[in-house]
């Protein structure tokens, strides 16, 4: 259940952060209304709370791993919402980032240790 919880929380955090940033972008760059910017600010705030619900206690580890999720999620958002057409390198970079995120979040538990390097 913990791995499922981690994945679900990262997905929700990605929707909140990427969606919030997209709404602010629409308000500022596309002049689509200040109210979209306000909704974006609320979504960005929600992202912070969602990230804090991760079972991992180390802020740095959670945010570092989320970076990989953010990369892949941003490209996916662009494809679905904006019609972005990624290159093969976008896909490769996304895959590398997601593998890195999985290593950061899951390897310590799989290895049975959560000790810092060199400890």
UniProtKB/TrEMBL annotation:
Belongs to the UPF0060 family. Keywords: Cell membrane, Membrane, Transmembrane, Transmembrane helix. GO terms for cellular component: plasma membrane. It is found in: Cell membrane. This is UPF0060 membrane protein. It is a multi-pass membrane protein. It comes from the Bacteria. It holds the Pfam family UPF0060. The keyword Protease does not apply. The chain crosses the membrane at residues 7-28, 34-53, 60-79, 91-111.
